[in-house]
Every structure is written in structure tokens, then in C-alpha cells.
Design goal:
Monomer. The protein has helices at residues 2-8, 18-31, 59-64, 71-88, 95-115, 123-129, 138-147, 160-169, 214-219, 257-267, 281-294; strands at residues 12-15, 36-40, 50-51, 54-55, 152-159, 177-182, 184-186, 192-195, 224-229, 246-253, 270-273. By secondary structure, the chain is of the alpha/beta class. The chain folds into two domains: 2-49 and 133-294, 3-Layer(aba) Sandwich (Rossmann fold), CATH 3.40.50.1000; 51-129, Pyrimidine 5'-nucleotidase (UMPH-1), N-terminal domain (DNA polymerase, domain 1, Orthogonal Bundle), CATH 1.10.150.340. The strands form three sheets. A seven-stranded mixed beta sheet has the order 1-11-10-9-2-5-6, with helices on both faces. A two-stranded antiparallel ribbon has the order 3-4. Strands 7-8 form a two-stranded antiparallel ribbon. Bound molecules: the ligand Nc1ccn([C@@H]2O[C@H](COP(=O)(O)O)[C@@H](O)[C@H]2O)c(=O)n1.
Length: 295
């Protein structure tokens, strides 16, 4: 199955330790789908990084580039993106150094969005008109997880309302999909007045943050994890999983490939370099076939 991923993939696939990977996969298969949860990032992990050589938008960019935002504000957001995104992906800076700067970026952008008086009823059209695209093979990915009743936890530092709308419009917002993200807070007339709860940025995603929530109860017996991410910050998404047994970490290396390759190879079990598809479907198919043979 691992070989299949390597062969089928249009991208370059790196596997840290194929033997160890095979063991993890066997163990996950033996334990059954009811012990598995999938934890995934959203922007540039479930969605495409580029299409026809052009960058695709993140959930924030869907708003930034839309008609809901004034030209002056768009220019300010672009400036912020050009300032802070290089810091986010800079492999020479530590997470500790980047963290306050990421909070600064998100806070500034959210304040700008609030100033724009965005209305809730405008989001559907804005998503429809955007160039956001889920990765090739997404239908099968969501379908396998739904069929096997495996929870898909999407942990995103993006905008929850936007990304949920993307998944809804793609027709794959199944009941097993749970999104944890920055949700907009609208006033009684449907105008954006704030963002709900604690800010989620690229370096504070942790399943432990869900402790005491209804959802945490539902997943606490699932000790095997498949984690999908595109940044080193995504690696902490499984922190707090109860009695973790096996974790399979799959990383999409989209940008600044050469500079960041080594750190991704050190941290992820499988690294998909410049991939735009969901080759992980082969792993899910394998788990599913194994389960179908047994039951
Ligand atoms: N104003 C912003 C802030 C962040 N981003 C990007 O969004 C990504 C975060 O979302 P995840 O689903 O990946 O957690 C992150 O990679 C930022 O670069 C943005 O585009 N605009």
C-alpha cells in the first residue's frame, strides 16, 4: 500500500522509515476503524496550494480577495500577508520567535475584517465566486471516512464559517466532520462584530484544547491517529489525544520546498512534496478493505 502511494503519486513521496510505517499501518488495521480518528489541517492540506501554476486562496484569502472588502483594506491585508507569511514559513526562526508575530498577524487581520461589516448572508456567494479548490480525490477521502464512521477533526487557523461553506458546497460536510476554527460572531442583524472564543493560529492547535467538550467524549476511545498537515505547527494537533497508540503523520510540503525539506522529513512519517491530490486515499482504502474482509 505504501509502495502504491509512492507509485501512484504525481508528486515526490518521501517515507521516513518504510518498515516502521508498515508496522503502524498494520497495527491501525488490526485495531479496526473504530479506534481511528483523522486529524487534519484545512488550508493547503485539504485544499490545493496551486492550480495551473497559480496560488489558490486560503480561507482568509477567500474573504481578502472578495467584493466584501474595500480596496484600501485589501491592500492592507496584502501588506500584512507579504510581511507575515514569509515569517510563518521561515525555517531559520524558532516557533517561540514566530508565535507572537503570528498572533499579531491574525489579530490585525481579524480587526480589519470586523471593520468591513461583513454580513453572514454574503458568505455563500463569496465562497462560490472564489478559486478555493479541495484537493483532487477529496470526494473519496470524505466518503471513506464517512462510510467507516471515522471522525474527521479539522483543526484550522483559518476562518471556520468560510471553510465549512467550502466543504458544504463540495457536498462532503458529513456528520463525522467536526471543524475547530476561528468562527465569526455576528450580531442580531447578521453583521460581523467579532470572532468567537480563543484565537486559533498556526502554532496553538491541540486536541487537548477540546477537553471537556462533547466532542472530546466521542473521540476519547480512539487511540489511533492519522494526522494530515502542511506546516510544522500542525504536528501538535494530536497533543492531548487520550492514550495515543499509533500516529501516522502525513505532511504536505507545498512551499519553500528545498529549504524546509529536512525539517519535514525529520517530523512527518510521509512527506508529499508539491502534491495536489489526496494520495492518502490508498491508506484509507487499505484500512477499509481489511475491515470489509473481516466483517
Ligand atoms: N490573514 C491570514 C492569516 C493566515 N493565513 C494563512 O492561513 C493558513 C492557516 O490556516 P490552516 O487551515 O492551515 O490552519 C496559514 O497557513 C496562513 O498562511 C492567511 O492566508 N491569511
Amino acid at each position: 500500500c505504501l509502495q502504491q502511494i509512492a507509485e501512484m503519486s504525481k508528486a515526490t513521496v518521501h517515507m521516513k522509515d518504510p518498515e516502521h510505517l508498515e508496522q503502524i499501518l498494520e497495527s491501525i488495521k488490526d485495531s479496526g476503524p473504530n479506534t481511528l480518528q483523522v486529524i487534519s489541517d484545512f488550508d493547503m492540506t485539504l485544499t490545493r496550494f496551486a492550480y495551473n501554476g497559480k496560488r489558490c486562496p486560503t480561507s482568509h484569502n477567500v474573504l481578502d480577495n472578495s467584493k466584501l472588502i474595500s480596496k484600501t483594506c485589501q491592500a492592507e491585508m496584502k501588506n500584512l500577508l507579504n510581511t507575515y507569511y514569509p515569517i510563518e514559513i521561515d525555517s531559520t526562526r524558532s516557533i517561540e520567535e514566530k508565535l507572537p508575530l503570528m498572533v499579531e498577524w491574525w489579530t490585525k487581520v481579524h480587526n480589519l475584517l470586523i471593520e468591513q461589516k461583513i454580513r453572514k448572508d454574503q458568505l455563500t456567494a463569496v465562497v462560490k465566486e472564489s478559486n478555493v479548490i479541495l484537493r483532487e480525490g477529496y470526494q473519496l477521502f470524505f466518503h471513506h471516512l464517512h462510510e467507516l464512521d471515522i471522525p474527521l477533526l479539522i483543526f484550522s487557523a483559518g476562518v471556520g464559517d468560510v471553510l465549512e461553506e467550502v466543504i458544504r458546497q463540495a457536498g462532503v460536510l458529513h456528520p463525522n466532520v467536526k471543524v475547530f476554527s476561528n468562527y465569526m460572531d455576528f450580531d442580531e442583524s447578521g453583521v460581523l462584530q467579532d470572532f468567537k472564543g480563543e484565537l486559533i493560529h498556526v502554532y496553538n492547535k491541540r486536541e487537548g484544547a477540546l477537553l471537556n467538550t462533547q466532542h472530546f467524549q466521542e473521540i476519547q476511545s480512539r487511540h489511533n491517529v492519522m494526522l494530515l498537515g502542511d506546516s510544522l505547527g500542525d504536528l501538535t494537533m494530536a497533543d492531548g489525544v487520550q492514550d495515543l497508540q499509533n500516529i501516522l503523520k502525513i505532511g504536505y510540503l507545498n512551499d519553500k520546498v528545498e529549504e524546509r525539506k529536512q525539517s519535514y522529513l525529520d517530523s512527518y512519517d510521509i512527506v508529499l512534496e508539491r502534491d495536489e491530490s489526496m494520495d492518502v486515499n490508498s491508506l484509507l482504502r487499505e484500512i477499509r478493505n481489511y475491515h470489509d474482509c473481516l466483517y
